[in-house]
Amino acid sequence: MKDLASLCYELVNIPSVSLDEAGIADYVESILQRAEHLSVVRIENNVVATRRDVGPIRYMVAGHLDTVPPSPGYSVGRKDDRIYGVGASDMKAGLAVMIGLALDPANTSPTRYLFYAAEEIERSQSGIFQVERQWPDALAVEAAILMEPTGVSLEAGCQGTMRARLTIAGKRAHSARPHKGINAIHRSGPFLQRIAAEDQRSVELDGCTFREALSVVRIGGGIANNVVPDQVELTINYRFAPDRKTEAAFAYLVSLFEGLMDQELGDSLVLVDSVDGALPNLSNELLDRLSRRVNAKRAKLGWTDVATFFDRGIAATNYGPGDPELAHSAGEWVAVDEIYRAFEVLSEVLAN
Amino acid sequence: MKDLASLCYELVNIPSVSLDEAGIADYVESILQRAEHLSVVRIENNVVATRRDVGPIRYMVAGHLDTVPPSPGYSVGRKDDRIYGVGASDMKAGLAVMIGLALDPANTSPTRYLFYAAEEIERSQSGIFQVERQWPDALAVEAAILMEPTGVSLEAGCQGTMRARLTIAGKRAHSARPHKGINAIHRSGPFLQRIAAEDQRSVELDGCTFREALSVVRIGGGIANNVVPDQVELTINYRFAPDRKTEAAFAYLVSLFEGLMDQELGDSLVLVDSVDGALPNLSNELLDRLSRRVNAKRAKLGWTDVATFFDRGIAATNYGPGDPELAHSAGEWVAVDEIYRAFEVLSEVLAN
């Protein structure tokens, strides 16, 4: 097995923006097929490698092959024990660790390694569902570790995320006579102030603090430079702690705008899409071992496929090399020592 | 001379959206050329008709040939003493009155009739400037009447209009960790509330009340559904009374946002364009006569070419058939009796 830093560097050098993962899937598949102790299955651009001859498979280690689009002007590089490039942190460093674990003949843990496509885009396109459709019990394990970047801390569970569209209405008029109309943009002021002033919930679950977040991520309105606008649309992103499900989360949003909404005028709040989060669920034996070994535990504030496992009753957590704050940022990089640290920790935890 | 209602109906039947005025200019030119008491000059798609043999020209009656684009589903028609169609009120009824006045051999007032193109679009393209470039003293009169729709009231002067761009800044972050950034959309709330709460000035000039208006006419911001946005842009339209010029009007806007602007973060307020208004200026003999004859006088809240004359030291006012509230509206129409009333009033006022 080659060294993991070079492996990570090679993976970063293979572009794999979502829906364009054939090249990286070929590369991963060809490396894994060399190991006789692995059974390797290719499903579209997803690769599943399972340890042979160790009895029933109990664990899964999973990571996505795709990246967000690269930022212009940033290239791949290696310098001062760092590897630079889009996907370095999210999550090709994690993929290198997974390949290292899978190829290690000394690692006899009953584990399946899932390399999947299209995680960074609209959820219904995710490779995890392609695998499940063709191999219904591929995910049927006791516990899963998602190798999302966590800075080799344990980031437990994940928050739900919801998108809602708030339409604020008005009445058109010529801007020389605005008193004949109702300016929808002016009306949006109190809505924005209420959102900005809202004290977000912090929820403690299994010793992890989930800090909710409510952000207006888009706003748009206006017809012409001399017309009082009759509509503004706001897109709200609400990240909600896993003690709430979509229904309760949306009910909270509705209650937030009480007294401001004028349905007769045409105001509306519509749920566009939502996906529930996942509870930390660290009572599982493997995750408990990982939690005690890592010794730094916090809540995952973003949404990850931990929720997909949670949905299926499978304990799962996020753990991997790479700073989560650098994910999707222009100058993304990963520290080489985190790659080796994650490999060492997981080798130990899976072995026990 | 044919009847003015039929003439208006024919004019409404000739499409003349801005920059497509050749057809209507041909039509107007050919009618006016039949009158031997007129000297008719064509300059691009503008037509200038001047009364011959009455000594120095003292007055101008002016109207634009173009219209805004028609609203889909509305057609030209005549019913119950109304003429329907885009431009009926703004301002083909006025053009019919102008043609009636110009063709009337009994009307010996020293008057020039200006039919000009491209008034409804960006000001630098206006036909009034094309005429002036080729015939520098074409506008050199004592007083001018703009036949914009005023419902046969006198609408004196006009307000200035300014467009300013307010940029509200923030700092990008992942929407799962908004506390790492600054949400520019959230920051726009207090700006909008200050604009909405502002008590607009009402200024009395020459017995006319100019009611100022401040409207946000466009808003836009946002990067992606999972990113805290770092910028919002607002377009503000400020209609200011003619006792203020652009500089003072913009200074007022700047002062309005005092204490909210954070220039270090990247907030800015930029003047995009502005055109001053015009004082009522009713001391001129012709306009005073019109004012006393009409007996219903108010301020023009929109901007019209009255300001272009005012700029050149020429007294000017708005007076014409057609409801100004119907201008640019989908079901635009004009009452036939207003056409005849305007013709009667102006015949009398110009004759005296």
Arrangement of strands in the largest sheet of chain A = 1-2-6-3-7-18-8-17
What helical percentage do the residues of chain A reach? 25-40%
Q: Would you tell me the overall average pLDDT of chain A?
A: 95
- From N to C, what is the helix and strand string of chain A? HHEEEEEHEHEEEEHEEEEEHEHEHEEH
What CATH calls the topology of the largest domain in chain A is Aminopeptidase
The CATH architecture classification of the largest domain in chain A is 3-Layer(aba) Sandwich
Total individual domains of chain A:
2
The quaternary state of the protein chains shown equals homodimer
Number of helices of chain A: 9
Major sheet of chain A: size, sense and barrel closure? Answer: 8 strands, mixed
Q: Quick one: CATH superfamily of the largest domain in chain A? A: Zn peptidases
Which labels suit this protein?
homodimer, 352 residues, alpha+beta, Aminopeptidase, Alpha-Beta Plaits, eight-stranded mixed beta sheet, four-stranded antiparallel beta sheet, 9 helices, 19 strands
